[in-house]
Amino acid sequence: MLRTIRFGEADIIAHLYTRDLGRLNVIAKGARRTKSRLGARLEPFFVTQVMLRRSKLGGEGGLRNVQSVDVLSAHDQIRASWTLQSAGAGALDLLGRLSEEGVANEPAYHLTVRLLAQLDDVAAPDPVHVSALVGAWELKLLHLAGLAPQLGVCVRCGGETNLTHVSSEDGGVACLECSLPRDRALDPGVLDAAIWLMRSSLPAVA
After folding, report:
1. Residue 38 near residue 83, CB atoms below 8 Å
2. Phi and psi of 74, rounded to 5°?
């Protein structure tokens, strides 16, 4: 569950990220009514099993209707911590912005489910630790989307040594010989950390 939006007097529009259909925008009719069982099950960070029905042609802009919701993981620890909640919200926002509606990316789905599980398992949230975990997820997500920066070799000559700068324009690091005035100087420790985060599993970072 990426996010929810109040709609009309009693409805909720939910943005989901699904295993089989990628990002979907759906509507839960009457979910904000007191007697509805849907509203409390449509919350960010929830991993759910949702039954949907297509709306009639033209209704609610063609949004699918939510028929039922089963919560598989509520991730209460994330919701109870501002640090975890802020980090998780940023991750879900990035996932939503990088994904196209109706286009499946099963590896991205499973990667995000693992991130939420790892965040929920953090006993004493430390901002630096949490940032590293989300940073590893971001690099892996960018890789799945074909947008990951080139970190191991110079983006201009392919050299593997003396990587001292980063080029946002060319999408990677540059060696001293290929660096341009518009490139930013890069701390070797930052580069080593980024490469480690890219190559390490989320449990290893956690």
Report:
1. no
2. -90, -20
Q: Which domain holds residue 95?
A: 3-147
Do the domain assignments include residue 204?
Answer: no
203 within a domain of the structure (yes/no): no
CA angle 97-102-107, nearest 5°?
A: 70
Residue 153's CB is within 10 A of a number of other CB atoms, namely: 16
Q: How many domains does one find in the chain?
A: 2
pLDDT at 59 > cutoff 80: no
Kindly report the pTM of this predicted structure: 0.87
CA–CA dist 15, 26 (Å, integer): 6
**CATH number for the domain that contains residue 139:** 2.40.50.140
What's CA 6's distance to the chain center, in Å? Answer: 22
Alpha-carbon distance 153 to 160, whole Å?
5
